[in-house]
Request: fold
Amino acid sequence: MKKKILISDPTLRDGNHAVRHQLNREHFVAYCKAAEAAGVPIVEVGHGNGLGASSVLVGECRLSDEEILSVSRDNLSKSRLGIHVIPGFCTIKNDLSKAVDAGVDVFRIAAHCTEADITDRHIRYIRKAGKEAFGVLMMSHMASAPTLLKEARKMESYGAQTIIIMDSAGAYFPDDVNERISTLVDGLSIPVGFHGHNNLGMAVINSVTAVNAGASMIDATIRGFGAGAGNTQLEVLVAVFERMGIETGIDLYKILDAAEIAQREFNPVAPCISPVSIVSGLAGVFSAFAQQVGQAAKEYKVDPRDIFFALGKRSAVAGQESLIIEVALELAAQNVAKNN
Amino acid sequence: MPPSNKLKIAIIGSGNIGTDLLVKVMRSERMTCTLFAGRNLNSNGMKRAHALGVNISDHGIESIINDTAICDLVFDCSSAHAHREHWATLNRLGKTVIDITPSKLGELCVPAINATQCLATGARNINMITCGGQSSIPIAYAISQVHNDIKYLEVASSIASRSAGPATRYNLDEYIETTQAALQNFTGVGHTKAILILNPANPPIDMQTTIYAKIANPDLPAIQISVAAMVEKLKQYVPGYRLIVPPTLEGGMVMTTIKVQGAGDYLPQYAGNLDIINCAAIAMAELIAQSGSCRVS
Reply:
């Protein structure tokens, strides 16, 4: 029997990072239709940092959460509609209850990899509402395999039905993925998923490694459209899985068509592994910091690579964007001191 | 002041916040802690209180119901949900309560802004909002004194993961909703947003808060003067409060960043979040002790 892997496609969520959260209505319509036609099982939408995250701190979204959910719901019927939320940005009352009412099918409740307990009430709320809840551990390279298992077990105890670990900084090598995914698969009684980023060119091989280690769900985006150096490239992954004899339910030709549609619709479509993204991967810093780091580097006339390594030393996590300016100011002051 | 004349206070909740508060109360000339009540005699906070020679109980609010004369004022350091039940009882018993949970039930209080007005209302339930509220609202208020046309206010705090105990984590939604509502309340700005980030970095990071204000034509020099004056006011009761990015124009927005280092009373210095809300609570309790308004006996 063929091995089956569930693909979840956050093009319309992680991709929002690539365009400073400026995806418009037409983008949502065009890509939802293309993904639906290709048989993508889950289409994840929203601000790059999830519902309730549109802010000066991490970027203001062009569309409101309500608009995104309604246009996506209208254009998906076979594909399930998914969202991502991070407690600390979102609340049950302000965001989750509205998403339940808007007809979202899959709720991915995320926390930094050592902070699973902040998802307790949100996961329980979603389960009580009769919807599907996944637990997501972000920046998972910052924790050891046993720590990830401990945190994942907490999410499982709240009712999470799948655990996904994210390589938010694109810092993993295949061995790292193998160790962590195997530990989770052995230690949990629910499915395990992997979400890769491509800063060091490892996203596809890391996803294949995750599957070989027992993961049954993989996140991937069309053209790799996503934060920083981009995500695991969906159409590549579908092709690779076909060759490996793994079933995804996604039609190869139609997902290749979707890649063409994305090329036409999104601008810039494909994040490339820019020099700054490579440094972000090496420094183990959240990929989505790239644009703001670039801006701060220009404004304060400092080397963006220095900013990334300094952020890495301080273990900056998602949502700590205000630290970028502080680090840039410090580096600028050091430069002045050096030149005097 | 001889012990018999000191304000008798009880602390409910033996977590990080309650224990830090205890250490601060013990330094006060005007207060004495007559009860430290929680649920678990083996918790670190209980052990600390016991070692300090404080009267402890694992019966929570019951220990006040069973001995109503034990205290004049109660610091509630439990959780937003538990506070609702606690207040129903404490109100009946005629106690004054300083609530350090984000329940939003009592009179919202930021000492640097409304300490005396808050007491003048005669309210017996004073709500200290949130740690992020205590650090950001004074700055937002100082800006709003210069501009009554702020379109949007956003405050983002990051705190060390280790400084956030189970109740704080469980109350994340209440933290956000209460901080947003209090920001609106003190500044009159209709559209506000609060964000809280738990940072697990080791060594732990100091509490830091960034305040963004959307204003059409900001008068930056006037804002800087107003904010600097407010920071001086805060330093009087929160010694570790520091302006690290003074009001700066950033992407059409006035951005200000502050840092709070704690006194290191219970958790180390990085836990400025514990320190600022507890310093604010102590400042209010000192005023109440001075006025003698809530003595039962």
About this structure: Chain B has two domains: 3-128+276-291, 131-272. The CA atoms of residues 114 and 120 of chain B lie 10 Å apart.
